[in-house]
Amino acid sequence: xxxxxxxxxxxxxxxxxxxxxxxxxxxxxxxxxxxxxxxxxxxxxxxxxxxxxxxxxxxxxxxxxxxxxxxxxxxxxxxxxxxxxxxxxxxxxxxxxxxxxxxxxxxxxxxxxxxxxxxxxxxxxxxxxxxxxxxxxxxxxxxxxxxxxxxxxxxxxxxxxxxxxxxxxxxxxxxxxxxxxxxxxxxxxxxxxxxxxxxxxxxxxxxxxxxxxxxxxxxxxxxxxxxxxxxxxxxxxxxxxxxxxxxxxxxxxxxxxxxxxxxxxxxxxxxxxxxxxxxxxxxxxxxxxxxxxxxxxxxxxxxxxxxxxxxxxxxxxxxxxxxxxxxxxxxxxxxxxxxxxxxxxxxxxxxxxxxxxxxxxxxxxxxxxxxxxxxxxxxxxxxxxxxxxxxxxxxxxxxxxxxxxxxxxxxxxxxxxxxxxxxxxxxxxxxxxxxxxxxxxxxxxxxxxxxxxxxxxxxxxxxxxxxxxxxxxxxxxxxxxxxxxxxxxxxx
Length: 492
Hints:
The structure is a single chain. The chain is α/β, with parallel strands linked by helices. Among the domains are: 2-66; 219-342; 347-410, no CATH class. Helix content is 64%, strand content 6%. The protein has helices spanning 2-10, 13-25, 30-37, 41-59, 76-89, 94-105, 111-131, 174-185, 200-210, 219-254, 262-295, 303-320, 325-342, 344-360, 364-373, 381-394, 398-410, 417-430, 438-450, 466-471, 478-481, and strands spanning 139-147, 150-157, 163-168, 193-196, 215-217. Strands 3-2-1-4-5 form a five-stranded mixed sheet, with helices on both faces. Strand 4 (193-196), helix 9 (200-210) and strand 5 form a beta-alpha-beta unit. The longest helix has 36 residues, at 219-254.
């Protein structure tokens, strides 16, 4: 043992390290290593423990959460940026803004400081909003959003999603709408058409402010209305069937079979009610499917054909109205009164298809076939059969034609759903506020127009703000535009 101790004491550090690594690797038994190097097994175990501790220190104590990723310079400019960004990006309350720097930075910020900074940002946002040229907007989408009982008038560009109108008003009558639309017109807003629901004040205000610029009907709202009717009648039919089945089960249990028995009479009545309810539900569902698929669908027949089909559907609804006037009449009247407005998009699309036919010297019938082809799912056999047939007819012009029709369809909106989307986004900001004022809405409008999309179903919007999409020109970060200084350099 003394001889082994002497050898171990004279063993260089590099050899000790190699011994420990060999023992850890398990490539050779510890007793064999001890015999070959003239040391004891205890000595090898000691070196192995040292190596294991060193490895643990290297790989375990430097946990990822303790790693210094980068250093941030906390300046007054950065704090001002954080105070403005938290309410807009994170929907934080003023108290939440106070809590963030207090808990994470040990910095105290007063409520008055937050209020004054946001008010200053709102004034700058208002200046930028008022200076924006709106002449590039071709289709406007209008709607009325409510915060409690207060209406908020909203207007959005259909192509870029730029919000050019966001104001709280005491009323939503024609005069109120007219005044705000005239203000927007002073910034160059003169769209070719607008899309809105059937609100009378909205439409009257636009007519008073903009004259003959057409206000077409919003397909989204009317679809919800007649789909709701079809679903309600389907539920009533299911209820009638359930009642009939329960009566049949009851009769089977009691054994009453005579025609004049009370339960038998009830069963005959239940069967009659079920048949009528099922027939009415089936007819209304068929009519609403025709309306969605053949009349109000974007890719469809010419305007004249749509008008004929529309009138037929309204007439058939009127024929069935006596069976359930309380539910059918509101839908029938809404469709009848809004026909020309709801089909306004079809006239616009017809003009675009005619222009495509003339530009590429292709028959309008073939252009219409390319339009109808877009109704089919691209994974269906019928789609590719139509695709091959159309390519045979058009030859070298096929791809140019198909792309032109696809673009025409994409640039022909039928609904004001983007305003509904704006509504859902604003709800997150309105939740913490009972009252709205012009400065807050002006700041929100600026933020929504200058914040870049992180994702979008339309790839051309990703990474760009609505203002950039509308103008085609880049702009600095929205915090910089508000005069809050440049952002800190991004970490590579």
